[in-house]
Amino acid sequence: KFGHLFNPPQSEHHRHEDKQDLNKIPGVAGVDYPIYHEVPHTQFSCHNVPAVPGMYANVETGCQAYHVCHDGREGHQGASFLCTNGTIFNQKEFACDWWYNVKCEEATSLYHLNADPEHNPYVPKKKPELELEHAVHDVHQGAGFLIHA
Fold first, then answer.
1. CB of 62 within 8 A of CB of 96?
2. pLDDT digit string (tens) for 72-114?
3. CA-angle at 98, arms to 51 and 69, nearest 5°
4. What element of type H or E holds 97?
5. What is the DSSP secondary-structure string of 21-72?
6. Which of 27, 37, 38 is nearest to 2 (CA)?
7. How many CB atoms lie within 10 A of CB 114?
8. Are 59 and 108 in contact (CB under 8 A)?
9. Do β-strands 87-90 and 95-98 pair in parallel, antiparallel, or remain unpaired?
């Protein structure tokens, strides 16, 4: 159970927020899912990741925090973000997801997905409209006229 893996110190970073009704989130706050209200300092470092730029779940926070590692402007932890209560960072999908859909303990084994341009949202993708323009150009050029989409 998650409660055995996640036992953060009780501090100003780990307290219930009066404004959010945690009863509407399935599971037990602080046991099934973490309830940080700001990103805590951890041992995570962008110097220890396989690919930059990239997005990385922080397993020390039960994956509620994640880091975007890029050119170093944000320090050794990169730009840090926190998923809302009840959600944690899904390393496979590169997005926050309900805690019960994610196996945080597997996150580090999925860090390599950042090296795959098809998965990593920070790797520039070929624009589909450019591919379409070349396809239309190639098809119509043989017919004696040229159309640009």
1. no
2. 777 788 899 999 999 999 999 999 999 999 999 999 999 999 9
3. 20
4. strand 95-98
5. -GGGSSS-BTTTB---SSPPP-S--GGGSSSSSEEEE-GGGTTSEEEEESSS
6. 27
7. 23
8. yes
9. antiparallel
